[in-house]
Design a protein that fits this description.
- The chain is of the alpha+beta class.
- The chain has two domains: 238 residues, Beta-Lactamase; 174 residues, 2-Layer Sandwich (Alpha-Beta Plaits).
- The chain contains 13 helices and 18 strands.
- Strands 1, 2, 3, 4, 5 and 6 form a six-stranded antiparallel sheet that branches.
- Strand 4 and strand 5 form a beta hairpin.
């Protein structure tokens, strides 16, 4: 079973192949885009999970360490209320007061200050080191606010060991509720650096711990100077403070790098912790994959489109060649007119159309007079030149696109005039004689004599009867009469007259 005509036409169509190539390329590109977007989403989900895990681990470690120090401070404050404390020796009082402080990680100094800010007890030993903390902000805060609870200072430099520290402190009250001093413990900022050193953040990632008043206690990896900067008015910090926990993407004011911030309040403490990862580093691996995949897809799409264009070009070339071959198969190579095959097809179509419409049909058979003389006297090149010029003259003698001029053999031509009666055909014949008479030919400098033609004219109305073969025989018989009556003339076949059998001679190359 053969291929459907429509499908075969599509397969041969240049534009179909080009369209298929473009559609295939767009399809590959679309699939690649979807895949790349999925990979990008995976990269962001991985970064989000990483930042959540980091934040959770850091928050737990910080909260636990602060809690241990705070429990030690609470224990000291409770032990100071023991009635028997004053009866103990200084060394025993030292052990009783600071028995809970031994578990505090990275604990620096731990002191008890009286209401005047002077040291009365010191974790380092007895007698205590003599310092006065009355001027420190944490001391003044507890003196002014009996309900303050645990206070965490801004970063400061220890006067005892010169380290960068934060101070955790609680108020001591006398039996009557009045201010009795402060118990404090310091936490070295080196603790945070050691904690964060174990974390991989990328080159542009950061970890920040803020006091709720906006003071940045710790920045990793680049530590802040002391005193530390305050970011209370910064837009990012305002979001940390107001939202409590969550994440968002924003540029960092200090360096302009866009980061994804994940933040939380440290449980039970006036602290805000955040982990910030560079969005560019989050997408770095994805960008590398996207570049490779995009390059491969671009190459494949270019190849697909190129092959489609090549296939389309080849199909177009073959179609053009087939069209040219079809034209050549219907064209006389010497004159460029329709050949006999084309004439017969056109004649049959014109007859069928005239039969349907009832219009007349006129046929002229034209033959070059004494054509053999041109070949004998001047050679075949001269004969060919005569035929070419005569073909031009015949083509100029017709006016309508539907009229058809054909070379049907040798020096014999036919002019088919659809929708034309005998009078119209006779008028065209006159134009043919006049055009032939105007021909002036020269071959190799030699003038060729005048060119004349003999014409047989016949007409019919197909709807009234007859056949196209009969019309052709009538025109052919009329041509013979024109030849026999002296040439260079037109003879018209009587309507309905069949020429004698003796007149049905071979028409090709007759040398008339």
């Amino acid at each position: 079973m053969g291929m459907p005509a429509g499908l075969a036409a599509c397969i041969r169509s240049t534009w179909v192949w080009i369209a298929l190539g473009i559609v295939a390329s767009l399809g590959m590109a679309a699939v690649s885009v979807v895949m790349l977007l999925e990979l990008r989403r995976d990269a962001w989900e991985k970064a989000a999970q990483t930042s959540r895990n980091l934040l959770q681990v850091i928050e737990r470690d910080v909260a636990r360490n602060f809690e241990i120090i705070d429990l030690a401070l609470l224990g000291i404050a409770d032990n100071l209320k023991m009635p028997s404390l004053s009866a103990m020796s200084p060394e025993i009082r030292q052990l009783v007061l600071f028995d809970r402080a031994v578990n505090a990680k990275d604990l620096g100094v731990m002191l008890v200050l009286d209401e005047d800010g002077n040291t009365v007890y010191d974790l380092a030993g007895w007698p205590p080191r003599r310092i006065n903390g009355a001027a420190r902000p944490y001391f003044k805060l507890h003196e002014a606010d009996p309900h303050l609870g645990l206070a965490i200072s801004q970063p400061l430099i220890s006067r005892l060991n010169g380290q960068s520290i934060v101070v955790l402190s609680r108020r001591i009250e006398k039996p009557d509720g009045s201010f009795g001093g402060v118990v404090l413990g310091s936490l070295s900022l080196a603790y945070f650096q050691r904690l964060f050193d174990r974390i991989e953040l990328g080159h542009a990632g950061t970890i920040n711990l803020f006091h709720e008043d906006g003071t940045r206690i710790v920045r990793y990896p680049q530590a802040d100077p002391v005193p530390a900067p305050n970011f209370a008015e910064a837009e990012n910090f305002q979001r940390f403070l107001h939202e409590g926990q969550g994440s968002f993407v924003a540029p960092t004011t200090s360096d302009g790098i866009e980061r994804v911030y994940r933040f939380t309040r440290v449980a039970g403490l006036p602290l805000v912790l955040n982990v910030a990862l560079s969005t560019r580093e989050i997408e770095a691996e994805w960008r590398a994959k996207a570049a490779v995949i995009g390059g491969i897809v671009l190459a494949l799409c270019s190849l697909t489109i190129g092959l489609s264009l090549l296939c389309g070009w080849e199909l177009g070339r073959r179609a053009a060649a087939e069209k040219e071959l079809a034209r050549l198969s219907r064209t006389d190579a010497l004159t460029g007119l329709s050949n006999r095959r084309c004439f017969e097809e056109t004649f049959a179509q014109a007859w069928a159309q005239a039969h349907r419409s009832g219009d007349p049909l006129c046929l002229l058979i034209v033959d070059a007079d004494h054509f053999k003389r041109y070949n004998d006297r001047h050679g075949h090149a001269a004969g060919d030149a005569v035929l070419r010029r005569l073909a031009e003259a015949l083509s100029e003698s017709v006016r309508r696109p539907s009229d058809r001029v054909a070379r049907i053999g040798g020096e014999e031509f036919a002019i088919l005039l659809p929708g034309t009666d005998l009078a119209g055909g006779a008028h065209v014949a006159q134009r043919v004689h006049a055009a032939a008479a105007r021909l002036a030919l020269a071959v190799e400098g030699a003038e060729i004599g005048p060119v004349t033609v003999s014409i047989g004219l016949a007409g019919a109305v197909p709807i009234q009867g007859g056949t196209l073969e009969a019309l052709y025989r009538q025109a052919d018989g009329a041509l013979y009469r024109a030849k026999s009556e002296g040439r260079n003339r037109t003879c018209q076949a009587p309507p309905g007259l069949e020429p004698p059998q003796a007149q049905k001679l071979q028409r090709v190359g007759g040398g008339r």
